[in-house]
Amino acid sequence: MSKISVKKLDIFFGKTHALKNVTLDVSANKVLAAIGPAGSGKTTFLRSLNRLNDLNPDMRYTGKILLDGKNIYDEDVNPVELRRKVGMIFALPIPLPMSICENITYGPKLAGTKNRAELRELVEKSLEDSFLWDEVKDRLDDPAMKLSGGQQQRLCIARTLALKPDVILMDEPCSGLDPISTAKIEEAMTALKKEYTIIIVTNNTKQAARVGDNTAFFLMGELIEYGETGKMFTAPNDKRTEEYISGRFG
Amino acid sequence: MRIDPKVSQRIMVTVLSLATGLALVILFFIIIFILSKGIPVLNWKFLSTFPSKMGKAGGILPTIAGTFILTLVALVFAVPLGVGAAIYLAEYIREGKTTKIVRFGADCLAGIPSIIFGLFGFILFVVILKMGWSILSGGLTLAFMVLPTIIRTSEEAVKSVPYSWREVSLSLGATKWETIRKVVLPNAVPGILTGIILSVGRSIGETAAIIFTAGSSLRLPTSLFDSVRTMSVHFYILSREGISMKNAYGTAAVLVILILAINLAAYWILHRFTKRNT
Predict the structure, then answer these.
(1) What is the tally of structural domains in chain A?
(2) pLDDT in tens, B181-198
(3) CB of B154 within 8 A of CB of B188?
(4) CATH code assigned at A78
(5) What sections of the sequence does the record tag as coiled-coil (chain A) (predicted)?
(6) Which of A249, A228, A227 is nearest to A240 (CA)?
(7) How many CB pairs under 8 A join A and B?
(8) pLDDT tens digits, one per residue of A32-76
(9) How far apart are CA A214 and CA A189, in angstroms?
């Protein structure tokens, strides 16, 4: 059964038609890579899945997004609760101006976890799962801003994991990172899909080929092609997909 | 003819450094002038005793108390109101006509001469609301006076917190208010504090608005409805009525030292705040 089912989703920002009639299913415990040139709607698609687009008062939508069969735009869905289930990693590493430890406990504390031992355990487990624990275990109370860019991004992943989400959204998570840090994040991603469903937006088609089980190609707000990554990169159905992947435009 | 860039560079550096130097010289001249005339008068007795013969002799204890109480009352009203309005403007309503009107109004209010505030406070608080010349009337008038400063500086401070931090906080399952309370406000504190310090300085130095609303009693106040005299008002009366220039300078010196101390304390707090997380 699919984890997320997007049905005929249209999104508008004022007069801009940002996403056009998108229908796709995301399988559980797989990595879906969304690729496409700038302005193709892939980030809008991603931000509709945790309703972060709601922050823009000019946003309108039609269609449905089912998470485990439940439409996340239903009246009785609280976006705050939804965002705990659907975590997000942003393009730039954005640690909150607090200590490493506080960054991780920020979400769980708001969700009501008060027990100190439980929080400590959560910090350790989240940092281990994001491959950061060994690098920071002796300085959990240092400001998160002091970490390197790659470490900050892994901290952001740990912070999201601490919410125990079902789905993790990643919006070009490696765009500001060096190749080694990128490799570490990709390593984390591959390990994480055992427990989570991951959707990653990337500008880097090679990254999509490396980490994506499935790939979705967006262009001008439309979903052009969607399928298994191996097939898409070797024998795409649409000419535009082939042109984009082979670097002829975009 | 083209001026040699090296020469024009040197000319501008000289002009700009002279401007800076002159500003500093004037500041130091004032401070040294006041302190040299005032410090000989200062001693523990001057600070801790009541004035006698209208201030010709004795100390300035009640005016020190009056200054502190009045400023405190002004802040108690102005800070929550001002910071609240700033949060509302910056976070809860969309940029548009309303925000522009409010901002324009605040800027106009900031430019109104203090004596007009005094007259307004006198009519509204002292006469119509029958509070009399009192700490409450004076404090409320001062609060109105410093409100625009607090709103504008706090609004800028709130806006200077990166938008991405708000998105991160919301994406981690925080509500809007939790985001404001835990991420936005703590990081806006240095800016908000700057506005409060400016307001404290203005309150302490204010004379015109206070004579009209808080009166000039030399007794130590026992309730919010008592009249008080601040150091500024005391200085004004001592020198205006020619009671004692010696004690006037003594009062002025205490005022100057107090304001310096407040600024230093504020810098220290700001420094500690900004060092903690970055």
Answers:
(1) 1
(2) 999 999 999 889 989 998
(3) yes
(4) 3.40.50.300
(5) none
(6) A249
(7) 66
(8) 999 998 889 999 999 999 999 999 889 999 999 999 989 999 999
(9) 14
